[in-house]
Structures are given as structure tokens and as C-alpha cells.
């Protein structure tokens, strides 16, 4: 039998179901892998070995009785540390939540438990999901498995690096401006940001509530569809949750591309786009064309304003969401203070890192009396124009195809002192969040120095099925990754 950690979720499911292997054996293989490989990658903030083994015993009982077995029963997963896990510390990559142990589970954790999935641990991230490199984690940066001196991307850097280094079979991340797609692209794995409202945000620590969405990171498109099946669906505990009428996304994978029109947004092929990235993305588009898709050029004229719009809206929402970390209810409280105000100030000054403070200041400023109309209101109006651009484009095509990021993974340290450069690495992913539509990153090639490149596919609201159809066809056309980094 090939090495257990090399198998995809559906391959593991097949042998678990036939009892050729037990969930305990699979879980032990992954815990070993974490011990051997993660000291180099540093994707995990917390490893929950005892809980994982207990869950595996439970999964084995189900598998033995063939009772309530789903494709995720007995599958070891990693969870971004922004998702609340009952009884397990949830830090959000921040010192302010270093010792925070949630008394409740996020809805998606309940869903994963109902499927009998196994949690191996909590994954590293930029503090409060603010960043594009995982260097804003208050604990340590994560390393890219393809080149340890480079970033895995962010903010779900731990989630992408763990899938690429095979220290979990699949993971969950969150995406507010690109945090699932950009790290997936830098690490050569599949990452999906679902339509806003598809996956419950109950128990997801809020960054920018009108943009945040949880989604899967996986080794291939089939695994992505299986994970989406498990985590999507209406939830009464999230007022922005939508009803869903699709129960099995894998059903769409094998449909051909005969009736598909692929739109290529001309604003995404601009100067500054790395030539290797451009070459790979264009090659992937021709591969889709040869699979039967019709290709047309489209325009998203307000793309240029997306980064500026996002950096008003996201910090504004963040400054309000992060108000709750005041040292009173939970999280850090400094030991020495003179009075209540002093306690607030010292706790927040010591608990938050520089990027989080920068966002709180920008957000508070743009929401303050006198500036609200000039900044927040204006940004909301531009957001509508960006959403309208997509609507118009989808009158001409089914799915848009473009790069995920202008370059492949950059070096650790390269942009950390230049926030604007860091922000600009999200130029192609941010518009999708502003419009609330789904986007996926699928590996489409390597640069001349062997770094992964991702193709981004975008579709209209609740058209995840279309994204998965095109993504799966691209996998068929280009072939799956056979040489994962770190043997
Ligand atoms: N990199 C972007 C930011 O720093 C997006 C982060 C995210 O999607 N969570 O805000």
C-alpha cells in the first residue's frame, strides 16, 4: 500500500470503508508526519494528538458498523486557528487570545464532528487574519514547503502549508480578501472561497464581517468538493447564512466544458504581472479551450479601485469587531494597571501586534464623524460598482479565469516592512470578496525556479458548481501534482 499520507481524501475514504486500514492507523501516520516535518514548516500552533486519537477510535467504531459513514469519517484535518473549537485554545495568531479556550464550537466544527472527521490541530495564521504572508502571526512565521525561505502566503498560511507538506489530509481556512486563494496558490494546492453566506460564520472569529467566509483547502478538486459538501448549508445562528439547494458538489465534476464560456478579464493581465505567472495562466486557459470551453475577453473596469476600497471597508469593520478585546470578558488582561482606562490601554497595547493596530487606527479614523461620508460611504459605493462589473461580465461568460496573485511566493522578510507592497499582493483576490462571489485557486504550473502558480476561477453568486466543473477539467487537462515537496 502506498504511504497513507500520500492519499487524497477520497482515496483514504475508499480504504477506510473497506477496512483495509483503520482511522487510528491513518491518524497515527499523520501525527508522525507532523512530528517529522512540522518543525521545519511550523504550520501548527497547537497539535491535539489525544483528541485526534479519541476521535479516530470513534470513527473506527462507526466504520466497523458501517453506521453514519460519510467520505469524511476518519479523515484527519487541520483547522485554521480563527475557528472556535470547544475546549481547545483558539489564538487567532494573537497574543491577546493566547490562552483563550472557547466554551463552544463553531457550526462547522459541529458539522465536521457529525461526519466523524478528525481534528489534528490548529493552524498558524496572520494575527486576526490580517496579512498575506503569515509573518503577522504573534507566534512564528510558517514556511513554504516548496522553498523554506519563502512565505506560504496568508493569512491561512498554516492551512495551505499543512496540506502541501501533507501534515493533514485537508484543512479549513478563512478568506476576507484572498486568505484562502493566495496561500493555496503559493503552496500548489486547491483553495475555495465560497459565495458569502454559503458556510456558516458562527464561531469564526470576526475580522470584517461583510467579507469573511470559511472555505476548504485540499490537494485536489474532488477533495475540495467533498469538504464543501460537509461545511456548507444554512445555519440559524448566522443571520447572513443562505439556504443551499446543492447537497453533493462532486456530481458536477465530470460534466464537460462544451457549453462553457470562459471570460478573461483584461484588467488582470497588467504590468507587474510576473512573466512566469502570465505564461502558466495563459497555458491553463488554452488547455481549457482545448477541452471545449469558448474563450472571450471581458472587462472589469473598476478593478483598479478594489484594493483602496477594501482597505477602507475591512479596517472599518475590524476596528468595530476588535473592540471586544478589552481585557474584561476574555483573553489577555495585563497584571499591572492603575484604573479601568489604564487596563484597557495596556491590555490592547500589549495584546495586539503592529498590523492589527494599524488597521484599528485606519478603521477608527475612517468611521469617525466628519470622515464617514468621505471614506466608508464612498468605499461602499465603489463596492457596488465592483459588484456590478462582475454582474455585467457574467452576462457574457460563465466563469472568469485569471491569476490569483501577481507573483509566486515571495521571500520571508521581503515585504514585511512595506505594508503597501503587502496589500498590493491581494489585488486580484480582493474584488471577489467585495462582490461576495465564489473564487477558487487551482494549481496550474511552476515558475522557472520551481514555485507553484495558481489559476483563479470566479463565478456568479452560488455558482460553486460551475467553478468546480472548470477546475476539475483543468486538473484533467494539466494532470495532478505528482511531486509534492518534502518527501
Ligand atoms: N491579505 C488581506 C488582508 O491583509 C486579506 C486577508 C484575509 O483574506 N483574511 O487583509
Short description:
This protein is 39% helix and 13% strand.
Characterization of the model:
By secondary structure, this protein is of the alpha/beta class. Among the domains are: 9-256, Amidase signature (AS) enzymes, CATH 3.90.1300.10; 304-380, no CATH class. It has helices spanning 9-17, 23-41, 49-65, 107-115, 157-164, 181-187, 221-231, 275-290, 306-321, 340-351, 354-367, 373-396, 419-424, 430-435, 464-478, and strands spanning 44-47, 76-80, 118-123, 170-175, 190-193, 213-218, 261-265, 294-298, 399-403, 439-446, 452-459. Strand 10 (439-446) and strand 11 (452-459) form a beta hairpin. Helix 9 packs across helix 11 (354-367). The chain is globular and about 65 Å long. The protein binds glutamine. Glutamine is lined by residues 129-132, 155, 175-179, 207, 314, 426.
Q: What is the average of the pLDDT values?
A: 96
The fraction of residues assigned to DSSP E strands is 5-15%
Largest sheet: 11 strands, mixed
The helix tally amounts to 15
Q: CATH superfamily membership of the domain at 9-256, which one?
A: Amidase signature (AS) domain
Question: Roughly how much helix do the residues carry, as a percent range?
Answer: 25-40%
What compounds are bound to the protein?
glutamine
H/E topology pattern: HHEHEHEHEHEEHEHEHHHHEHHEEH
As for the CATH topology of the domain at 9-256, it is Amidase signature (AS) enzymes
* Total DSSP E strands: 11
> Architecture of the domain at 9-256, according to CATH?
Alpha-Beta Complex
Strand numbers in spatial order across the main sheet: 1-3-2-4-6-5-10-11-9-7-8
First CA to last CA: what distance? Answer: 16 Å
- Residue stretches low in confidence (pLDDT < 50, at least 5 long) are none
By secondary-structure content and strand pairing, the structural class works out as alpha/beta
Q: Give the C-level CATH assignment of the domain at 9-256.
A: Alpha Beta
Amino acid at each position: 500500500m502506498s504511504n497513507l499520507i500520500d492519499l487524497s481524501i477520497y482515496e483514504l475514504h475508499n480504504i477506510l470503508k473497506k477496512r483495509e486500514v483503520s482511522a487510528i492507523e491513518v491518524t497515527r501516520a499523520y501525527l508522525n508526519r507532523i512530528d517529522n516535518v512540522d518543525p521545519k514548516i511550523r504550520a501548527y500552533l497547537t497539535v491535539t494528538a489525544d483528541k485526534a486519537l479519541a476521535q479516530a477510535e470513534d470513527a473506527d467504531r462507526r466504520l466497523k458498523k458501517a453506521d453514519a459513514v460519510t467520505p469524511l469519517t476518519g479523515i484527519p484535518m487541520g483547522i485554521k486557528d480563527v475557528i472556535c473549537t470547544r475546549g481547545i485554545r483558539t489564538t487567532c495568531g494573537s497574543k491577546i487570545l493566547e490562552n483563550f479556550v472557547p466554551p463552544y464550537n463553531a457550526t462547522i466544527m459541529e458539522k465536521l464532528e457529525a461526519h466523524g472527521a478528525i481534528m489534528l490541530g490548529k493552524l498558524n495564521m496572520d494575527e486576526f487574519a490580517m496579512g498575506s504572508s503569515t509573518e503577522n502571526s504573534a507566534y512564528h512565521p510558517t514556511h513554504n514547503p516548496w522553498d523554506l525561505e519563502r512565505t506560504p502566503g496568508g493569512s491561512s498560511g498554516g492551512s495551505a502549508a499543512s496540506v502541501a507538506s501533507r501534515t493533514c489530509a485537508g484543512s479549513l481556512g478563512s478568506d476576507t480578501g484572498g486568505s484562502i486563494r493566495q496561500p493555496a496558490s503559493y503552496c500548489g494546492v486547491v483553495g475555495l472561497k465560497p459565495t458569502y453566506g454559503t458556510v456558516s460564520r458562527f464561531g469564526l472569529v470576526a475580522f470584517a464581517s461583510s467579507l469573511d467566509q470559511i472555505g476548504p483547502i485540499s490537494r485536489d478538486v474532488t477533495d475540495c468538493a467533498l469538504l464543501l459538501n460537509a461545511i456548507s448549508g444554512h445555519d440559524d445562528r448566522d443571520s447572513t447564512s443562505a439556504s443551499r439547494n446543492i447537497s453533493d458538489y462532486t456530481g458536477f465534476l465530470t460534466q464537460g466544458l462544451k457549453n462553457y464560456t470562459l471570460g478573461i478579464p483584461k484588467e488582470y493581465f497588467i504590468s507587474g504581472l510576473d512573466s512566469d505567472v502570465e505564461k502558466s495562466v495563459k497555458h491553463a486557459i488554452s488547455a481549457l479551450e482545448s477541452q471545449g470551453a469558448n474563450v472571450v475577453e471581458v472587462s472589469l473596469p473598476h478593478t483598479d479601485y478594489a484594493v483602496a476600497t477594501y482597505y477602507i471597508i475591512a479596517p472599518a469593520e475590524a476596528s468595530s469587531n476588535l473592540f471586544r478585546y478589552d481585557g474584561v470578558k476574555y483573553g489577555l488582561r495585563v497584571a499591572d494597571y492603575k484604573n479601568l482606562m489604564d487596563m484597557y490601554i495596556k491590555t490592547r497595547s500589549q495584546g495586539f501586534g503592529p498590523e492589527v493596530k494599524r488597521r484599528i487606527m485606519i478603521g477608527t479614523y475612517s468611521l469617525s464623524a466628519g470622515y464617514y461620508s468621505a471614506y466608508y460611504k464612498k468605499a461602499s459605493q465603489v463596492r457596488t460598482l465592483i459588484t456590478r462589473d462582475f454582474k455585467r461580465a457574467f452576462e457574457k461568460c460563465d466563469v472568469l479565469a485569471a491569476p490569483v496573485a501577481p507573483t509566486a511566493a515571495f521571500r520571508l522578510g521581503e515585504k514585511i516592512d512595506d505594508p503597501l507592497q503587502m496589500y498590493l499582493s491581494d489585488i486580484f483576490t480582493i474584488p471577489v470578496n467585495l462582490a461576495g462571489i465564489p473564487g477558487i485557486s487551482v494549481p496550474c504550473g511552476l515558475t522557472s525556479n520551481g514555485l507553484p502558480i495558481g489559476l483563479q476561477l470566479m463565478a456568479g453568486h452560488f455558482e460553486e458548481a460551475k467553478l468546480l466543473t472548470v477546475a476539475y477539467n483543468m486538473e484533467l487537462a494539466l494532470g495532478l501534482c505528482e511531486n509534492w515537496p518534502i518527501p
